[in-house]
Specification:
Double Stranded RNA Binding Domain, alpha+beta, Ribosomal Protein S5, domain 2, 4-stranded mixed β-sheet
Length: 163
């Protein structure tokens, strides 16, 4: 009886994994962070990870842990939970969008076919993993990767396709 239930649950897990499209992941930032305590400093690692299927879905996660591998795994799990869909029209975004998040300012413009992704840093990674093939972007205000990723994702969330 117990073996049958274990086999059924294994089959269900395999079916769910097969149904989910392959998500590519990219570690955008790894930082060693410290918290000062009475006994000294407590070192941990913070991982900023992007996941995307290059077909319109992208998400990000930021997590801390005592080891790099654990931090990355936790961030990937968080990113998979917070996937969003990017509206695209002819392999680009439908219209120009500007967004400000904290000190991070992002500007994204649609581009003609063959242009590629012309954007820097964190915005480039987000757009590539989302599958936007032709776009021009500019990141201004800060070099903080976490805020730049959040600004880019919020700018993409603001997009709507109108017919």
């Amino acid at each position: 009886m117990a073996k049958q239930k274990a086999a059924e649950s294994r089959a269900i897990k395999e079916a769910l994994e097969a149904r989910e499209p392959e998500l590519e992941q990219r570690v955008l930032d790894l930082a060693r962070v410290a918290r000062v305590t009475a006994g000294g400093k407590r070192m941990r690692f913070r991982a900023l990870v992007l996941v995307g299927d290059k077909a319109g879905r992208v998400g990000f996660g930021v997590q801390k842990a005592a080891s790099v591998a654990t931090a990355v795994n936790k961030a990937v799990r968080q990113a998979k939970k917070h996937l969003m869909t990017v509206p695209m029209l002819n392999e680009t975004i439908p219209y120009r969008v500007d967004f400000k998040f904290g000190a991070a300012k992002i500007m994204l413009k649609p581009a003609p076919r063959g242009t590629g992704v012309k954007a820097g840093g964190a915005a480039r990674a987000v757009l590539e993993l989302a599958g936007v093939a032709n776009v021009v972007g500019k990141v201004m205000g800060t070099k903080n990767k976490i805020n730049n990723v959040k600004a880019t994702l919020e700018a993409l969330k603001r997009l709507r396709i109108t017919n």
